[in-house]
Design a protein that fits this description.
Strand order of the largest sheet: 1-10-13-12-11-14
Largest sheet: 6 strands, antiparallel, barrel
Distance between the termini: 84 Å
CATH architecture of the largest domain: Orthogonal Bundle
Radius of gyration: 54 Å
Number of helices: 4
Number of domains: 3
CATH superfamily of the largest domain: Helix Hairpins
Oligomer: single chain
Shape: elongated
Helix content: 40-55%
Structural class: alpha+beta
Strand content: 15-25%
CATH class of the largest domain: Mainly Alpha
CATH topology of the largest domain: Helix Hairpins
Order of helices and strands: HHEEEEEHHEEEEEEEEE
């Protein structure tokens, strides 16, 4: 009881300062302002940081609602490889590295001598085949005359045979009545046999002459086929001769030249490539980015080689199939363990009006593309060329 009362007294008794150092002076207004200044600075810094992060977040997030972008994109073109179709020596080369060419320009000339000889030989073969055909026609006319001759001989044989038969009847009647000799009757009968043999001989000759017509007609068909074959050979020789001059099929620029005058070239050998003036962009977008992408949508293209250049384009088409489907070894997802990988789909984009920039852009250059999939609000128009 006494202990608790003593403790309560000790708690209620104020502490007595022992010296001047233990006394606190009253706070002034200036001291209070200095005490709150560090807290105000911290609050302002935190507020500014939060505001900056919010603006940065809007800058990065909001455009994703109206556009999709990728840096997996390249300038592309329908390049043409110039190859010879015949084997020959290069006699003249009318282009050089990076030469500008127009449609129809003569690019390469090959040695024409062998092919000119082939044309002349084919022309001579045609004349020979035509001569054979003319000979067959003459033989056919001759055979028709032989047939007519044999027909006349058969007709004569028939007439003489008929007369011989009449003679037998006449001399037979005379022999029976005693006014004719037996010898003359036998001679008349012998004449019938001779006339019958002659008729059979001339009939056989007529049949042979008629059959020979079919042989001549078959030879005529062969001759006509030979003429057609030789004409085709002449056309091929003339075509090969025309292949000795290689012309440009498109307006563009020479690239990757690997031929010089005097080289012997083979069919299918790439001499150089021609890059057309019309270029486009192939952008490989993730499949998850293509939900709202449609042909005709506006595109902003940034060329890595020219950081300050921005070009307008539009979506031309979307490939029907991912890039992996056309790879040398397509994926077999039905076998083994499966790991889902986001696929990429090539999107073709064509320039709207590149102007002089097309002179400096080349196939293979890396670009970044941004497709506008929805119309931006007016207050975001300043982000269009960001």
């Amino acid at each position: 009881m006494e202990a608790s009362m003593a403790n309560q007294t000790a708690l209620e008794t104020p502490a007595i300062p022992k010296g001047p150092a233990d006394l606190e002076a009253p706070a002034s207004p200036k001291g209070l302002a200095e005490a709150h200044r560090p807290g105000l600075k911290s609050a302002l810094i935190l507020t500014g940081t939060a505001l900056g992060l919010a603006v940065l977040g809007l800058y990065l997030y909001v455009p994703g609602l109206y556009e999709v972008a990728t840096n997996d994109a390249y300038v592309d073109a329908h390049m043409v490889s110039v190859v010879p179709k015949v084997a020959a020596y290069v006699s003249a080369l009318h282009v050089d590295d990076n030469s500008k060419i127009m449609r129809g320009d003569l690019l390469v000339e090959l040695d024409t001598r062998d092919f000119q000889v082939a044309v002349e030989s084919a022309a001579a073969d045609i004349k020979s085949a035509e001569a054979n055909a003319a000979n067959n026609k003459a033989q056919l006319k001759e055979q028709q005359a032989i047939i007519a001759q044999n027909e006349a001989a058969v007709a004569g044989d028939r007439a003489t045979l008929e007369f011989a038969q009449q003679e037998v009847q006449r001399y037979g009647s005379l022999a029976n009545t005693g006014f004719g000799s037996e010898q003359r009757l036998q001679q008349a009968q012998s004449d019938i046999g001779q006339r019958q043999a002659a008729l059979m001989r001339d009939r056989a000759a007529l049949d042979a002459a008629r059959a020979h017509v079919s042989v001549i007609e078959a030879e005529e068909q062969q001759a006509q086929a030979a003429i057609a074959r030789q004409r085709a050979a002449l056309a091929q020789a003339q075509l090969n001769l025309s292949y000795t001059k290689i012309y440009a099929t498109e307006r563009g620029t020479v690239a990757n030249k690997t031929v010089e005058p005097g080289n012997f070239v083979q069919p299918g050998q790439v001499l150089f490539s021609t890059v057309p003036d019309t270029l486009f962009v192939t952008a490989n977008y993730k499949e998850t980015q293509l939900t709202d992408v449609r042909p005709g949508q506006a595109v902003i293209i940034r060329i890595d080689a020219f950081p300050g250049l921005r070009l307008r384009a539009h979506v031309d088409s979307i490939q029907r199939g991912t890039g992996s489907q056309f790879a040398l070894l397509p994926p077999e997802n039905a076998t083994g363990n499966f790991v889902k990988v986001v696929q990429r789909v090539p999107v073709k984009m064509t320039f709207d009006d590149p102007g002089e920039a097309m002179q400096w852009i080349a196939p293979g250059m890396s670009v970044e593309t941004t497709i506008t999939i929805a119309e931006r609000p007016g207050w975001l128009s300043w982000m269009e060329w960001r």
